[in-house]
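Teaching soon. Invent one.


***
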Amino acid sequence: MFEDEPSTLKEKIYRTIIALFLFVLVGTLIITFLPGDAEQSLIGAITGQNSTKAGSIAGRSIPVDYFNAAKRDCYYRYQQYGRETAQNPELLNSCAYSTVREIYIANDIASAVGFQVSEISIKREMSKQAREIHKESVSQAGYGEEDSRSLTEIYQQIYRSAPMNYRIDSATGFALFPNFLDQPLTPSENETEIESEAKRAKISFRLVAISEVNLLNAVESKINITDAELQKEYEKEKKEGTLSKDPSGNFVSFEVRKPLLLSKLKFDRKRKEAEVWKTRISQKISEPNALDAIASESGQPIETVTAVSLSDLKLVTSNRGNSYRLANSSKFWESLANDPFSKKTVVGPFSDNDKQVYVEFSALTYGQPTASPAKDQAADFLKQRQLLSFFLEINQSLAAEYNVEKKGLLSLE
């Protein structure tokens, strides 16, 4: 019942030759009966001449079917320039690589802003196209519906003509600017009213500005350093070895060193006294009529700023002609958002160059609403051109970074 295993070397060699012959014969028959393109693909895969990749762009692989879909689009695009142009293999390959690079760049931008054309919308468009082709084929050819290709067959042919990921990517790239970036954002009624109020809002406030230089000068007049303190500092430097020496190698005398010691101790004392003074001033915020108390403690006058709009806070001028840039401080805006008006609340200090500014908000007023200006279509057109130029500049800048590596062994003809 069972075939005997070959026992001799001669039988083993004989059976191996027969098996190899049958394998070659069956393989040849399979290749012979394959369709032409499938046969070429199989031979290419066996010999290593074909690849599933057409190269890469910025290190990202290009699938062959993706590349061929781009190449087909280039073919239809070049047909309008003539048949010879459309059938130029070198031109088509170059166009296909450029097209894929543009699609990759556009989709990276789209991904960054959260935009993508959905697969459902692509299939709906394919379905619409299939129905139109089916309708035209029935009406123009004069055949009955049963004699023409079915709607399903037409749809399947369209579906197989390009990979879905290419369809989504190319549709996203083409729709990114007109369907997303260039869409006008219409504010709601509430947003429009808030914007109108913000433009009409004007605030008035009082302030006291304390300059670091003013504090140091005021402190200096109160500092008195005795000779005993200077002598002590001199001996300290001498002991630490930081005291300078004369050309003979001896320490300089106290009388020679005294002016420098006086300047040094005064400077140190001024800094310390100024810090103590600033702390004392800042503690006045919690007192009644705080701004008046701060002005009295610091010896600086109270200044007023009247009816200034929010947009002008970047540079305001007080009644004394002094200019301040309060809008540079985020703390100022936080205080303003807490509705401090008519409460005589003092906030600060806000830093403005070398000044520390304390502010007491007085009033918030609104002007009369104005009629909305007529829509300036020329300005809208200019804005659209500027946005498009900006978008194209982004694409052009990124293109320099998206290097193309072509697959040398890939047959794309």
